[in-house]
Specification:
This protein is of the alpha/beta class. Helix content is 36%, strand content 17%. The protein starts with a helix and ends with a helix. It binds pyridoxal-5'-phosphate.
């Protein structure tokens, strides 16, 4: 039975790598996932920074059920007025600065970035795009073009032209931003680079250079948004506001969604020259918007975001006892745990799995593993997780 299911998975489902985890999921609730044999796993990665409010939060389930009873898809995005979309737009506007009041809801993080780049080109009338080395912005052609990773790009060339890469945290490299630059797209805190925070000086200088040249500044918070780093949005740590913000992952409370957000003035350039500048059939699907609304409301009602840093510190203190950990980089409840080698990372992650704890890799940092649990995790659960990781090391 088990072999048969593995075979179907491995042969009839497209694969992304040659050694998938193969956890055969039965159900998930809170911070736990159970497999078909009844084994319980602590989900210490939250489906890669998606289940920030835990799996199947009751308020998300209720919102989905209520929406199911009203309607599913009724029309492509942007034509009809739909309760769930309207409420989400209001909800997002209520938690974001004034210049980020107009949101456009799409299907994924990568689509949000694709559309944000298009929006910047259309609004500025410029063609040059700047992004960062070691970044990750998604897997479709446009987002891959701005992903600063030669290995990930090389087999898929040609990609988008007119893209240049700056070094994260290198103020001198900002010199290439000019009046020809349509946008600079960066992750506010780099995630798959193994968690790299910007310095205050760098992010302020970047904002100033964009303002001075008229280039739009895009922050990709697909991974670090929605409370993950101890603030609702990572840019709040730095008091620097982008012209366009992209979201995804945790925004949907477990449902697939993405969004790009700007001022109304910038956003509405997509309505003409050409009209339908960005269109999507399923973007803003009412079920996903209802789930996103409920998820934002949960984050507003609970203290999980304000508690994230203290909880993160608790886990950091426990892990700091291990002499084998070379470095812990952390923002709120998002950890990159640096080991001496990729082999050691593989051993630790495998041992954790055996002991019922899920950790995961970074796309471009083989010597570190990620921990990004649901923000709803309790102190007791953090202590238990810390012990399991220490024992696995
Ligand atoms: N941007 C960042 C920073 C991400 O981490 C990711 C996914 O990991 C994406 C964009 C792409 O999002 P999606 O996988 O929903 O297309």
């Amino acid at each position: 039975m088990k072999n048969n299911r593995n075979n179907i998975f491995l042969n009839l489902q497209g694969q992304t790598n040659q050694s998938p985890y193969l956890i055969d999921v039965d159900k998930a609730e809170g911070i736990y996932i159970w497999d078909k044999d009844g084994k319980r796993y602590m989900d210490m990665i939250a489906g890669v920074a998606v289940n920030n409010i835990g799996h199947r939060h009751p308020k998300v389930i209720e919102a989905i059920q209520q929406q199911l009873d009203k309607h599913l898809h009724v029309m492509v995005y942007g034509e009809y007025i739909q309760d769930a979309q309207l409420e989400l737009a209001e909800n997002l506007a209520s938690i974001l600065p004034e210049n980020l009041s107009c949101s456009y809801v799409v299907n994924s993080g990568t689509e949000a970035n694709e559309a944000a780049i298009k929006l910047a080109k259309r609004y500025t009338g410029r063609q040059e795009i700047i992004s960062c080395k070691n970044s990750y912005h998604g897997s479709t052609h446009g987002s891959l073009s701005v992903t600063g990773n030669d290995e990930k790009q090389s087999s898929f060339k040609p990609l988008l032209p007119n893209i240049q890469f700056i070094e994260f945290n290198n103020i001198e490299s900002l010199a290439i931003i000019t009046e020809k630059t349509a946008c600079v797209l960066i992750e506010t805190i780099q995630g798959d680079a193994g968690l790299v925070k910007p310095t205050q000086e760098f992010i302020e200088a970047l904002r100033e250079k964009c303002t001075a040249t008229g280039a739009l500044l895009i922050f990709d918070e697909v991974q670090v948004g929605m409370g993950r780093t101890g603030k609702l949005f990572a840019f709040e740590h730095y008091d620097v506001i982008p012209d366009i913000l992209t979201l995804g992952k945790a925004l949907g409370g477990g449902m697939p969604i993405g969004a790009f957000i700007s001022s109304k003035e910038v956003m509405h350039s997509l309505t003409h020259n050409p009209m339908l500048g960005h269109i999507t059939t399923f973007g803003g699907h009412p079920i996903n918007c209802a789930a996103a609304n409920a998820s934002i409301n949960v984050l507003k009602e609970e203290n999980w975001i304000t508690e994230a840093d203290a909880k993160g510190q608790l886990l950091e203190n426990i892990l700091a006892q291990s002499a084998e950990i070379k470095e812990i980089r952390r923002a709120g409840l998002f950890f990159a745990i640096e080991m001496e080698s990729a082999d050691k990372v593989a051993q630790v992650v495998e041992k954790c799995l055996e002991k019922g704890l899920i950790g995961f890799w970074f796309l471009s940092t083989p010597t570190a593993f990620r921990i990004s649990p649901p923000l709803s995790i309790s102190e007791e659960e953090i202590k238990e997780a810390g012990e399991i990781i220490l024992n696995s090391i």
